[in-house]
Amino acid sequence: MKHFWDERYSAHDWSYGQLPNAYFKEILDSLASSGSLLLPGEGERRNAIYAAQQGWQVDALDYSEVAQQKALTWAARLGLSLNYQVQELPVFTPPKPQYDLIGLFFLHLLPEHRATLHQQIPILLRKGGKLVLEAFNPRQLGNHSGGPKREDMLFTQAMLSHDFRDLHILQLEERTVTLNEGIFHQGEAQVIRLLAEKKH
């Protein structure tokens, strides 16, 4: 996986664009205050930079050293601080024990790895902390706008309800959207969106 992502991020200036994920931006802009944010599988920095500009303390993780260096270089140009670590997923060591917000965006892993990653998320949220997620659902198969070609790596409402059953679900829906996120996420796409909160 590390080799795959290093190659992808080396071959293109911005594989998934420079603007933040639209759903992430919508949720972040709706929150009354900033805090600590964890972004596993962050990639080249698009969400991390936007969050840091809004005053969030950002911890980002990814497989790829190429992505890390691109993110840190861009943050330095803007005078922003990111804590960006290269770590393997799904098992990782978070920089902090708890977060106000965790974002997972198009982080499609093999089923057993997905379950392992998702099990860690409620533990890493502090009380009142939120999870925001966007990924492809099975109806995305056959589209050319991004995502894995294996159905068992795509997300359903039942899957996410089960994986995050310890959180209070605020929003869980499948939607048709038009992606404009770099060269690999372009065009009409079938996504699933989740917003959940840790109540206790």
Primary descriptors:
alpha/beta; single chain
3D architecture notes:
The radius of gyration is 16 Å and the shape is globular. The model has no long low-confidence stretch (mean pLDDT 90). By secondary structure, the protein is of the alpha/beta class. The chain has a 7-stranded mixed sheet with strand order 3-2-1-4-5-7-6. The longest helix is centred in the middle third of the chain and has 14 residues.
Topology:
Layout: H1 2-11, H2 22-30, E1 36-40, H3 46-53, E2 57-62, H4 65-78, E3 83-86, E4 99-105, H5 111-124, E5 125-136, H6 157-163, E6 168-181, E7 185-197
Parallel strand pairs: 1-2, 1-4, 2-3, 4-5
Antiparallel strand pairs: 5-7, 6-7
